[in-house]
Amino acid sequence: MQDKNFDKLSQKFAKNIYGTTKGEIRAAVLWRDLAPQIAALGNKSLRILDAGGGFGFLSQKLAAMGHEVVLCDISEQMLAQAKQQIDAANTPLNITLVHSPIQALTTEQHGQFDVVLCHAVAEWLIDAQTTLKGLLALLKPQGLFSLMFYNKEAMRFHSLVSGNFDYVMRDMKVKKKVGLTPTHPLYIEDVRLWFNQWQLTMVCQSGVRVINDYLKHHLPPNFDTQQLIEMELLYSQREPYLSLGRYVHFLAKKA
């Protein structure tokens, strides 16, 4: 077994994730959580690591604000897309592309960072706990660690309300994985325990897609996508909705 590489799925990934309402919700929640905490680090250029960042949706946004970004991904195709978009940007972006597994990143080669992002990566890793702990060595004291992971309990609940009871009884295991279905979803309780063990101080917790994935097939004629995003933001930090988010975003500060 090995960690997932999206080389063969890069075009599908970009279209299915960021070219949809799901992607708009993800971007809205992450930015709502990150923006004030990054601003609180001071009016200065920060060093930011986007670990497993694909084509760098957030990397480009942060670099456009004047920050120095290192974008690392195991997929050569994803980084090729990133380079095309960076080259086409209206203003020069200070982004260094690193083609590497995130486990291979070292302080000797890259130094330490004010912010480390790791979004939609952990659920594809054979050993997420060890890999994420390794990323913390790259984070400066009082730096921000932003982790978004696929929520196994939400995966179960979605299957239950869809009537896929046999799938749930098999602990959501299938003989052949669908391309974009994460192979190693995580439990919220486990990740919270890891953060405590690593002495990270939680500053923000949000569910991502707490409503969208449970919408009925027949929606009201006046259904409005922008209103959906507003409702996602409104309920994303409230229980029980937070724990039903298809993804969960934890933002914490290193001791």
TrEMBL record:
Q: Sorted alphabetically, which InterPro entries does this protein's record hold?
A: Cmo5U_methylTrfase, Methyltransf_11, SAM-dependent_MTases_sf
- Residues that, per the record, bind S-adenosyl-L-methionine: 26, 52-53, 73, 119
Query: Reaction catalysed by this chain?
Result: 5-carboxymethoxyuridine(34) in tRNA + S-adenosyl-L-methionine = 5-methoxycarbonylmethoxyuridine(34) in tRNA + S-adenosyl-L-homocysteine
Q: Domain named Methyltransferase type: which ranges? A: 49-146
Question: What is a single molecular function from GO for this protein?
Answer: methyltransferase activity
- Give the enzyme class: transferase
Checking Pfam families in the record gives: Methyltransf_11 (PF08241)
> What are the BP-aspect GO terms?
methylation
Which UniProt keywords are present, listed alphabetically?
Methyltransferase, S-adenosyl-L-methionine, Transferase, tRNA processing
Stated EC number for the protein is 2.1.1.-
Keyword DNA repair attached = no
Q: What does this protein do?
A: Catalyzes the methylation of 5-carboxymethoxyuridine (cmo5U) to form 5-methoxycarbonylmethoxyuridine (mcmo5U) at position 34 in tRNAs.
For this chain, the family text in UniProt reads: Belongs to the class I-like SAM-binding methyltransferase superfamily. CmoM family.
- Protein's recorded name: tRNA 5-carboxymethoxyuridine methyltransferase
Q: What species was this sequence derived from?
A: Shewanella subflava
